């Protein structure tokens, strides 16, 4: 068969679509590249402005200032641990709850489902949450990062919607073969739910990685400080032009190092963003598919 020639209208549409996509790519990448350029540029030179996507005078002084903070490496391990543990446990509990909520024949199904939905709009607030964590004995422990986020109603509804669009014949045939609900869930539902699991997993991982307020409110042990919390402290110290014991620099050294609060902010932005960005390319195809399927059927 010969190739079908495109009409002028189709060519015009393709060109316009390409230009729009290129514009979106530029609009998306430019701010990040601009921040990276400033973070790698000599700070006193950056104050003059005019930095695009490439540093004008290359310098690592801003990153040296950030990484000089001794607590940052321990905080990185805490953030990595909470991200891995929190994401794994949340996916496990969310997937089990989502599969359960597809069984509309369960006694009290409507009441439980409505209870879940209502909980999305009502919060106890910081003070009741603080007392609850103390009562559960997770205050000032590593588990205060993990257990509160184990279950999310929004994520459960997303996965429930995905499971409902799977062919029902698969479960019926498995039941006829004598498979239990646990076997169906583990051997049929979970293997087919890769896209939505990747989507929800990315949501949870980003939330865990970026969280710092729970460190502020629910811990007082320096060993439990997360990366985002430590970087926030570094940034505030840079803004206040203070030097702590963890980031002590002699006055003679300060005359040779060129840093500004703005350059430190940019370096902190890159340090906190790059690790989670490295994960996205590996799950991109599942993420897009999961979002499309999970949003179609209600």
Write the layout of secondary structure elements.
Elements: H1 8-39, H2 43-46, H3 61-67, H4 71-100, H5 109-119, H6 126-135, H7 143-146, H8 153-164, H9 168-176, H10 181-192, H11 194-210, H12 213-218, H13 227-239, H14 251-256, H15 261-277, H16 280-294
Explain what you see:
The chain has 298 residues and is mainly α. The chain folds into 2 domains: 1-59; 61-294, MetI-like fold, CATH 1.10.3720. The protein is built from 16 helices and no strands. It has helices at residues 8-39, 43-46, 61-67, 71-100, 109-119, 126-135, 143-146, 153-164, 168-176, 181-192, 194-210, 213-218, 227-239, 251-256, 261-277, 280-294. Helix 13 (227-239) packs antiparallel against helix 15. The longest helix has 32 residues, at 8-39. The two termini are 42 Å apart.
Keywords for this entry:
298 residues; mainly alpha; MetI-like fold; 2 domains; 69% helix; disordered C terminus
Concise overview:
Helices cover 69% and strands 0% of the residues.
């Amino acid at each position: 068969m010969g190739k079908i020639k495109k009409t002028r209208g189709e060519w015009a549409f393709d060109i316009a679509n390409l230009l729009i996509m290129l514009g979106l790519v530029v609009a998306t990448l430019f701010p990040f590249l601009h921040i990276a350029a400033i973070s790698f540029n000599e700070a006193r030179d950056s104050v003059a402005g005019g930095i695009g996507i490439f540093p004008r005078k290359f310098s690592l002084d801003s990153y040296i200032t950030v990484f000089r903070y001794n607590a940052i490496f321990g905080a990185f391990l805490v953030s990595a641990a909470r991200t891995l543990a929190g994401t794994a446990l949340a996916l496990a509990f969310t997937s089990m709850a989502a599969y359960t909520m597809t069984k509309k024949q369960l006694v009290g199904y409507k009441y439980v489902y409505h209870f879940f939905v209502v909980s999305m709009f009502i919060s106890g607030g910081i003070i009741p949450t603080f007392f609850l964590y103390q009562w559960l004995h997770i205050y000032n422990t590593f588990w205060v990062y993990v257990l509160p986020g184990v279950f999310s109603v929004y994520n459960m509804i997303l996965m429930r919607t995905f499971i409902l669009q799977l062919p029902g014949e698969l479960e019926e045939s498995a039941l006829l073969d004598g498979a239990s609900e646990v076997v169906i869930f583990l051997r049929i539902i979970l293997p087919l739910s890769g896209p939505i699991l990747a989507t929800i997993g990315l949501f949870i991982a980003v939330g865990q990685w970026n969280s710092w307020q729970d460190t502020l409110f629910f811990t007082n042990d320096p060993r439990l400080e997360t990366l985002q919390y430590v970087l926030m402290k570094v940034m505030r110290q840079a803004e206040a032009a203070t030097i702590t014991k963890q980031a002590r620099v002699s006055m003679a050294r300060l005359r040779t190092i060129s840093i500004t609060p703005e350059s430190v902010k940019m370096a902190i932005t890159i340090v906190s963003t790059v690790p989670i960005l490295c994960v996205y390319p590996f799950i991109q195809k599942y993420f897009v598919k999961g979002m499309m399927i999970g949003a179609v059927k209600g």
